């Protein structure tokens, strides 16, 4: 099977490519990635002999048309993915997340290629703290940020291309991922690399916001399950019952580093900061029999800390610039 992975040099995409190469010897993998600040070709070094990396944008229609025409399946991870960046400059979010997804949809429509669209729980907006309420496939879309609104728009494009043109597509909306190869602008790797450098973690606002953490390997095993057994035209929510407040994440990391659990700083809150995300993944579990493997969050965090300690050359080059950007916003 010829698989085209967009955004395969980014965090979740690179882990998806590694998992695919490891578990599916019959798959021929091509990655299409623009290698933005968030993409890193060295993330694919361990599988370089099995993967073709094409450097280019999903908004480049002739390139996309050619690569899609040579594929049996497109798994679409490529996106501008960071909420904070979308508050400073939404423009690349509109280009990549909306125009890029549109460009891919036109190509899969033309060539009749199976498409899986990777999306986020953030399309549903946020939930109050301390309620049992969770997102389901029936929850109305209500995105808060430029990032999540462009992801919501891209989901709606996929749904319309399924209904109007019979495109063979599935969609998954997943909660917050953690694990190896995550860019150090994101919450967990930012604090882990701060702690490696002896710097205090930085918590936005009071730190009471809740995210529903899932290990990236579990996200990707669910994606394969949906591709192989999911119903075309359907949306599946992916989550692993990992609700944790940001404050608890920071305290656990401080403990792992043998530091005082109160040794962190509160910094300027994110504008429009979503309070809580929580996924009800019962459809995925019941209909497709999927279960997560990483059920102990602390163990998963410990493994992630080890990975960042052992792969300092992978992240060191981006650290100073990333922190300078945050410092300019008081974060
Ligand atoms: P990431 O920012 O780490 O990686 C994105 C990749 O896309 C990078 O390699 C980048 O170079 C590439 N890219 C950006 N613009 C491109 C373009 N125009 N053409 C081709 N490639 C381009 O993001 P991630 O965290 O790995 O997220 C991957 C996908 O998963 C995104 O669609 C995101 O919305 C979704 N998602 C992420 C999470 C999470 O917790 N990180 C949770 C749910 C869903
Ligand atoms: O330094 C920080 N301090 C802090 O308290 C950073 C970078 C973040 N935070 C908070 C903000 C969020 O409540 O931590 C939480 C997680 O922040 P991010 O890692 O930026 O993730 P989030 O905004 O929740 O979005 C992530 O999950 C859903 C991904 O970046 C998205 O791509 C995905 O769709």
Automatic annotation (TrEMBL):
The gene is rfbB. SUPFAM superfamilies: NAD(P)-binding Rossmann-fold domains (SSF51735). Pfam families: GDP_Man_Dehyd (PF16363). It is an enzyme of class 4 (lyase). It comes from Promicromonospora aerolata. Keywords: Lyase, NAD. Transmembrane segments: none annotated. It catalyses: dTDP-alpha-D-glucose = dTDP-4-dehydro-6-deoxy-alpha-D-glucose + H2O. Its EC number is 4.2.1.46. GO terms for molecular function: dTDP-glucose 4,6-dehydratase activity. Belongs to the NAD(P)-dependent epimerase/dehydratase family. dTDP-glucose dehydratase subfamily. This is dTDP-glucose 4,6-dehydratase. InterPro entries: dTDP_Gluc_deHydtase (IPR005888), NAD(P)-bd_dom (IPR016040), NAD(P)-bd_dom_sf (IPR036291). Residues 4-302 form the NAD(P)-binding domain. Its cofactor is NAD(+).
């Amino acid at each position: 099977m010829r698989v085209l992975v967009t955004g395969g040099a980014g965090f979740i995409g690179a882990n998806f490519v590694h998992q695919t190469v490891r578990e599916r010897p019959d798959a021929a993998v091509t990655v299409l990635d623009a290698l933005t600040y968030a993409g890193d070709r060295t993330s694919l070094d361990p599988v370089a002999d099995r993967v073709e990396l094409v450097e280019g944008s999903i908004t480049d229609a002739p390139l996309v048309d050619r690569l899609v025409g040579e594929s049996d399946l497109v798994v679409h991870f490529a996106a501008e993915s960071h909420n904070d960046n979308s508050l400073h400059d939404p423009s690349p979010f509109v280009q990549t997340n909306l125009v890029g997804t549109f460009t891919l949809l036109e190509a899969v429509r033309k060539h009749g290629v199976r498409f899986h669209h990777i999306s986020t729980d953030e399309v549903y907006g946020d939930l109050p703290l301390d309620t049992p309420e969770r997102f389901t496939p029936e929850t109305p879309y209500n995105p808060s940020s430029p990032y999540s609104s462009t992801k919501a728009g891209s989901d709606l494009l996929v749904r319309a291309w399924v209904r109007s043109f019979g495109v063979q597509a599935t969609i998954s909306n997943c909660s917050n991922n953690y694990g190896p190869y995550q860019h150090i602008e994101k919450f967990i790797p930012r604090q882990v690399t701060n702690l490696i450098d002896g710097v205090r973690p930085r918590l936005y606002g009071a730190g009471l916001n809740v995210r529903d953490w899932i290990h990236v390997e579990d996200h990707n095993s669910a994606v394969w399950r949906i591709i192989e057994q999911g119903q075309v035209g359907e949306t599946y929510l992916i989550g692993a019952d990992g609700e944790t407040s940001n404050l608890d994440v920071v305290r656990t990391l401080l403990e792992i580093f043998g530091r005082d659990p109160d040794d962190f700083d509160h910094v300027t809150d994110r504008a429009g900061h979503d309070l809580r995300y929580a996924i009800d993944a019962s459809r995925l579990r019941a209909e497709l029999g999927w279960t997560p493997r990483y059920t102990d969050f602390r163990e998963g965090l410990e493994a992630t800390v080890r990975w960042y300690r052992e792969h300092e050359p992978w992240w060191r080059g981006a650290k100073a610039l990333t922190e300078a950007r945050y410092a300019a916003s008081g974060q």
